[in-house]
UniProtKB/TrEMBL annotation:
It holds the Pfam family DUF1003. The keyword Transmembrane applies. Residues 1-28, 162-208 are annotated as: Disordered. The keyword Transmembrane helix applies. Residues 190-201 have a biased composition (Low complexity). It comes from the Bacteria. InterPro entries: DUF1003. It comes from Parafrankia colletiae. This is DUF1003 domain-containing protein. The chain crosses the membrane at residues 48-65, 77-98. Keywords: Membrane, Transmembrane, Transmembrane helix.
Length: 208
């Protein structure tokens, strides 16, 4: 028995698949949904409305004008009413299916939009914080007017220091000039006194 089950590929620890499952029609929901959307999209076009109007008018005119043996749907056009009812019976579920798929897409897009908006809000908050930090750091930096005022004050200090240094140098030069002027008469007087001394001594020695 176990050998037969192994040959068939069946297992005792799993339930046997029902045979009715093979009889059920299988279809891909995505493919069927796409086909339903295409049909619903075509039903909502002006081309379909114009074609249906032409078919109904030709149907009615032919069944009225044609001879009785050639007519296939006499008044009150029961076959035409049945065809239109059958079309409406299939068109309504197809349109609802297409609307449901569109609603699902709208929900997915809405979720993505929410995620995008949350990301944008986070990015905006981050940028706002960065801008605030930059403003604070820029406020702590020296401005152009402050630098100009400081440079002007520094130039004024340098000018005053240069003027003081120039005045000191001028005073030192004046002092040197005064010293030189005082030393020059003494130097000129010293040679004169040296020459007159020996002459006087010679003159004093001659009478002896």
């Amino acid at each position: 028995m176990t050998r037969l089950l192994r040959r068939r590929g069946e297992r005792l620890d799993q339930p046997r698949p029902s045979r009715r499952a093979h009889l059920r029609p299988s279809y891909e929901p995505e493919t069927f949904g796409r086909a339903a959307e295409r049909i619903a999209r075509f039903l909502g076009t002006a081309r379909f409305i114009a074609a249906q109007t032409v078919v109904v008018v030709v149907w009615v005119v032919y069944n009225i004008v044609a001879p009785p043996p050639a007519r296939f749907d006499n008044y009150p056009f029961i076959f035409l009413t049945l065809a239109l009812s059958l079309q409406a019976a299939y068109a309504a579920p197809l349109i609802l299916l297409a609307q449901n798929r569109q609603d699902d897409r709208d929900r997915a897009n809405l979720a993505q939009d929410r995620e995008t908006s949350v990301r944008l809000q986070d990015d905006t908050g981050y940028l706002a914080r960065e801008l605030a930090a930059m403003r604070v750091s820029i406020g702590e930096l020296a401005s152009r007017d402050f630098l100009r005022s400081e440079l002007k004050a520094l130039l004024a200090d340098l000018d005053s220091a240069n003027s003081d240094a120039g005045a000191g140098a001028r005073g030192e030069r004046a002092r040197r000039d005064r010293r030189e002027r005082r030393q020059r008469p003494e130097e000129t007087a010293a040679p004169r006194s040296g020459v007159s001394g020996p002459a006087r001594s010679g003159r004093s020695r001659r009478p002896d």
